[in-house]
Amino acid sequence: MGKTLVEASGYTNDPKLFQQMYIIKVKGKAKIPDYIQLRDENFVLIAYFRADRPLKKLEKYGLEGKEVALQDVINNLPFGKLQKLEI
């Protein structure tokens, strides 16, 4: 029997199964930097990283080869507005 990628009941981290992803930029305060959240179609948090640092292991999220496009989205994303990630 093969390995399963299910980490929690009803949730998988297999990038092939992500139908949609959503992105939101969270404004930091004082010494806390701005952060980016990536969420799946059920709005479950799948990635959380600093806005000023590139996300590593993009293939884990099905975004390999899209580093420049993702950075452009992050740079133009308004704070606090959840939107569908389309790159």
Attribute tags:
87 residues, alpha+beta, two-stranded antiparallel sheet, disordered N terminus
Structure, briefly:
11% of the residues lie in helices and 29% in strands. With 87 residues, it is of the alpha+beta class. It has one domain (16-84).
Describe this structure in words.
This protein has 87 residues and is an alpha+beta fold. It has one domain. Helices cover 11% and strands 29% of the residues. It contains 1 helix and 6 strands, in the order E-E-E-E-E-H-E. Strand 4 (35-40) and strand 5 (45-50) form a beta hairpin. The termini are far apart. The relative contact order is 0.24.
| Tally of separate domains | 1
Which percent range fits the helix content?
10-25%
Q: pLDDT under 50 segments (min length 5)?
A: 1-10
The overall average pLDDT, rounded, is: 82
Q: Based on the structure, what is the oligomeric state of the protein chains?
A: single chain
Radius of gyration, whole Å = 14 Å
Biggest sheet strand order reads: 5-4-3-6
H-E order: EEEEEHE
Distance between the first and last residues' Cα:
35 Å
